[in-house]
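Prompt: Have a read of the protein record below and flag anything odd:
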Amino acid sequence: MELIRGQHNLRERHRGCVLTIGNFDGVHLGHQALIAQARARAQSLGLPLAVLSFEPTPREFFSPESVAGRVATFRSRVALLGAQGVDRLILQRFDRRFAAYEPAAFVEELLVRRLGIRALVIGDDFRFGARRGGDIHLLRALGERHGYSVESLDTVALEGCRCSSTALRAALKEADLARAAALLGRPYTLRGRVRRGLQLGRQLDMPTANINLHRRLALRQGIYAVRARVAGRDWTGVASLGIRPTLGLTRCLLETHLFGQPGDIYGQTMDVEFCHYLRPELKFDSLDALRVQMHRDADEARALLAAQA
């Protein structure tokens, strides 16, 4: 999948595509159905399938204090979209200038002139442009003028409830991993690059592979039994998602202790699958108390994962 960072990097060779638009945070079953419909349309026309997405999301831009957190890391989102058969991901920076796009100008300047869309596939609640003034009726009217078709996807429901990012974030907030997996159609997993940390885990006899999180996550902070894949090998382990209050820190980090000897994996991409929620993140009076609890957590994670296997 080709990643295009911003409309200023679009070239003439990128014109002519079937397009769908959205944040696609988590790529849940509703997103998958939308992409599948767009992919089928692209195949019928012999054109590439393109996704237009935004960073930050419009809601994060307008109301950052009310955002519930991301479902997925950036690396996760890119990998998931690629796995769904998307040919091009146009990642557009959402800023004040982009937010001011009038709906008709958004369609005519970006979708028609820059992308040359032949078909557009959207969700049934899609709104766009300044003040969210554009809707499917405007898209279809402009499509008749500019020669592209518009298709919409009805709501995808799971057990009578709308399959949405809102529902998914609610499940993650409660650490309801079974519900999250049902909405995703797969276990909840995060992807990131392993970075060097404070090396504190080594001092506590539990070295960790750390993934920095640049956006707050919707998943409840705490301790989890996990499965991981890194450097072509599968591992079980225990992970901490949180801010490390015992150390007086505030930046959220995913720290994963792998059961075994993975060797030097710094710089490698790692997938962490969350299997069981163990407990909330706690502040301990000393590093010794933290070390004792970490080893208890590891024993509990081993037992749960062994029983699951």
In short: Residues 187-308 form a domain with the Elongation Factor Tu (Ef-tu); domain 3 fold (CATH 2.40.30.30). The chain has ten helices and 14 strands. The chain has a mean pLDDT of 93.
